[in-house]
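User: Hi! I'm working on a homework problem where we have to compare a predicted structure to a textbook description. Could you give me the structure for the chain below?
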Amino acid sequence: MVNELKGTGVALVTPFRKDGGVDEVALRKLVGHVIDGGVEYLVILGTTGESVTLTQEEKQLVKRTIVDQNRGRLPLVLGVGGSNTAQVISELQDVDRKAYQAVLSVSPAYNKPTQEGIYQHFSSVASSTELPILLYNVPGRTASNMLPETVFRLAGDHSNIIGIKEAAGDLQQAMELIHGAPNGFLVISGEDMITLAMVLMGGEGVISVIGQGLPAEFSEMVRLGLRGEAAHARALHYRMMKSISLIFEQGNPAGIKSMLSHLGVCSSEVRLPLVKADPDLHKRIGSFLDEF
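Assistant: Happy to help. Predicted structure tokens:
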């Protein structure tokens, strides 16, 4: 299981039609686009997928569509997290264990739990399922940072907690995680800009946003980094670096959807309270792709 989740995972967007509905055709096209690009696995209904604005029926549609289009080609990771521990546990009971190789569970947002609260939340979640779990630390969104000692405590107490998507944007914290993690525990970058740095320091890969815009190049960069081919990997990183800044300039997933619309994969539509990238950013993203 752990080996299946090394390399580049992609946090898929949810394409929308102009009328606001989920665009199933574009979603299938997106799945094909990233698989053809050589990524290692797919992440469904994460933050980038605007999952908080989807109805339960739409979430089921997204899951069915991706599972069907994937046809068992790549491992699938399902986002199941939230600020209500009991609700997260309830949702996990309905997960098809045959369809998904792991669950990505974000730390509670807004509640701002203590480290003990974070530990108790994930301990309860892990105890409720046999599914492998990737923790997700993203304090820029949750307003609560999961510290390395809390991660290590959880990993030691629950064998099905197999790794963490670390998106604090803090290289020192990332290195503390990589250095102190139990053998076989995955430390995965959640920040595209510092992915290569984390990989070269011993991280196991990334769950990426730009990886669905530039899947071939970004996944190759990660593979090179995992093999220790730093010079070639670094050249790819610097070639793509501007695009990473561009897609996050006005928030995620507005930027990556703008890029995907230029690539003809899906529209740039997002759901309120998010808004599309403005015309100037949309143009600059297109100019980058033309030059790239």
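For your comparison, note the following. The domain at 3-228 is CATH 3.20.20.70 (TIM Barrel). The two ends are 35 Å apart (CA to CA). Good luck with the assignment!
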